[in-house]
Amino acid sequence: MTVTALIVAAGRGTRAGGDRPKQYQALMGRAILGRTLAAFAAHPRVDALIAVLHPDDDDLFAEAVAGLNLNVTTVHGGATRDASVQAGLAAVADESGLVLIHDGARPLVAPDLIDRVIDALANHPGAAPALPVTDALWRGADGKVQAPHPRDGLFRAQTPQGFHLRAIRAAHDAHPGGAADDVEVALAAGLDVAIVQGDEDNLKITHPEDFARAARVLRERDMDIRTGNGFDVHAFCEGDGVILCGVKVPHDKALKGHSDADVGMHAVTDAIYGALADGDIGQHFPPSDPQWKGAPSDIFLKHAVALAGERGYRISNADLTLICERPKIGPVAGAMRAEMARLMGIDLDRISVKATTSEQLGFTGRQEGIAALATVTLVKP
Description:
eight-stranded mixed sheet, 29% strand
């Protein structure tokens, strides 16, 4: 059976404050209702999308969905939630076997929760997500506790509440009105409603403080953390010093390379490209191109850092290990860290430069060159 998502958004939401209905207020740069609709539009099992709006909100709705490329049908709601749901149900195509009725102010609905509701409808005429009450409950009056209240069998209701279309239409037609939600309407009609596991993050934005809580959930959910590794080797040649992390280190040799052969900076640069899954220095700056001959390696590093920024990432930290017998890195490690932090635009405590020997083994042990290993973490907030 096909599935229609019916998003109820005709209310005024005055408890949330603000100069417009809460469903049209911004949550991390996007209208709440826009986020809610986008969540259902992206779900592969949802075939159609209907939004029930207040008659005065057409312009606000157009603003809320601008740029989202949504295929959504809109209808005007009534004076009560019941009337708005009935208006929405009337707009659902008769061939749609299932309908998911969802609050427009619940923008954090997750795909797996939608799946749980749809799956339960295979064996029940209705299904809804809920969370068991875990706090102690009291009955009270006049600001005083009167008596404890048992919490066994009590649940906090959420949406989407799913139903077989014909069953919930008939239930609403028979109901006198005033129901808190569609499960109440279904129960009054004698429909069996299954409880599926709800989601603490699927909050309904009701009060001003709910915006901050929803923003925290979004930041945690949408955060993209990537880690890349970089490895580079350069052999020694005749010279009077090596360039490491942009610092000239006195030595009786130099490093051989097409550019300035800054093995440390090359490793960090490749680690950034690796975290972005975007090749390496050789692909961005081919050694066959004569313009890069003898070029300072900060050109490469700055390009990688800028590329990460263009894609919305910031550099969380970088860790570099230089592998060599000589020159000694310890005395100049602080200067290297400072220069790398400057070039990368990060705080000093986010970059580490350290060194180790290979215990006189291999080419580094024979003092034939220097190797470098780097790890960089990128974060998209």
